[in-house]
Amino acid sequence: MMTYSIYVVDDEKTAREGLALALKKGYNVEAFGLAEEAINALKNAPPDLVLLDIGLPGMSGIDALEEIKSRYPEIIVIMITAYEDVKTVVSAMKLGAYDYVVKPVQMEPLQVIIRNAIETIALRKEIQALHEKCLKENLPYIVGESNVIQDVIEIVKKVAQSPVTTILIQGKTGTGKELIARAIHYRSPSFKGPLVEVNCAAIPKELIESELFGYEKGAFSGADKAGKMGLVEKASNGTLFLDEVGDLSMEAQAKLLRFLDEGEYYRVGGTKKRSVRTRIVSATNKDLPGMVADGNFRQDLYYRLAVVKIEVPSLNQRRDDIIPIAKHFLVEFNQKFCKSFTGISSEAEAALNQFNWSGNVRELKNLIEKGVLLGEGQVLGVEHLGLDGNGRIETQKKTDEKNTLPRLSSSGIDYPSILESIEKDYFEEALKFAKGNESKAAQLLNLSRDKFRYHRQKLDTNPHGRTQTQG
Ligand SMILES: Nc1ncnc2c1ncn2[C@@H]1O[C@H](COP(=O)(O)OP(=O)(O)OP(=O)(O)O)[C@@H](O)[C@H]1O
Ligand SMILES: [Mg+2]
Prior knowledge:
- The chain is α/β, with parallel strands linked by helices and 471 residues long.
- The protein is 45% helix and 13% strand.
- The protein has 3 domains: 5-135, Rossmann fold, CATH 3.40.50.2300; 147-313, Rossmann fold; 316-460, Helicase, Ruva Protein, domain 3 (Orthogonal Bundle).
- The chain contains 19 helices and 16 strands.
- Strand 1, helix 1 and strand 2 form a beta-alpha-beta unit.
């Protein structure tokens, strides 16, 4: 088990030693009589938590808190205050203190506060370690504790390791289909080549054949003189990810089917038969069997693509995942925007649990991102998320004085991420107003539909592990 470290800073010797002694049973404790000494020691071994007296000789507890938070925002600080100083506590909380206790300190309530704080730290560390591991191994990480998502993860692991060459991922928008496609690719020992992504909805139907299979020089007017390699060839020994496969025209479906049936293809305008070994992972949020029944998708192609079918459940069908996913993004955006959120209030958790997540994980992610970006404090509450106690987004948005954009400080800010987040928010809102209709949403933002699609995709794009994007 991990041992956490605590600094006790108090000028009263007996109080300091008493606290240190009581806490030594569970933690690594160091005690200091002056804030200056503690701050000096931070450089060598920053602790997880600081118990900080407000009334100190020399540098005050409040100044020390400010100093600690500006240099080590991840350290949790609990203030110790004399009864007559309770008013000062308000400013300490505003500066990012986690909680406070009043002197003489009662050990039992203090232990509870510390235990809660440590839980937050442990969660943060766990997620950080996972992030680092994923980054190092290039593994997309699928968060989720529900049985249904665990089953999906099991299938992902199994098919990734298997020789199966076609996999179809089905699920509503924002459920994580793309994430799963990437997870399959990066877990495949025998398809270690590139991951090539094609957004079938974004390629004009007259170009799809030449995009997929390439063309020989002079194949058509406007074609590159030297000819061009197709995406299928680029994905050689790797994975071709056909996203939004339900948007392929009937013509394109026929071409793809021929390739899948024969394993061979010609470049447009070419006479040389070519073959390539690649795994084809496709995804759609459309009801493909329904489209087959209506004659809008070829049945033979459907069976070809869906040798293994992965159904990703909607977030509403796996409510156990809501809070773990929310916490995952809380940690991620907290780091990204240099905020000091350490948890989600129980009221906000209840609201998140009740919310109707029609936009699935993407909607939850965007909500947390916006809350962290615009909110201030330690605990993400319903007021940051625009939710009320029943989980509904407040229809009348109040200008909340708590919501502010991050100020520029000497440690700098992540300007591109902040802009991106604001853009995302507008896109999300426009889509909501337009009830998911992209053309209408584009109009609301005074963008062409193509520009809207392109931007939206770019905003959604996680550069992690991607080699090529079309669209
Ligand atoms: N289980 C999960 N854990 C962590 N992040 C997730 C999870 N599921 C989805 N996400 C994140 O949510 C966002 C939306 O997911 P993704 O793009 O994979 O959805 P999608 O099913 O492809 O949606 P669409 O049909 O609209 O293309 C992404 O940023 C993705 O990384
Ligand atoms: Mg997708």
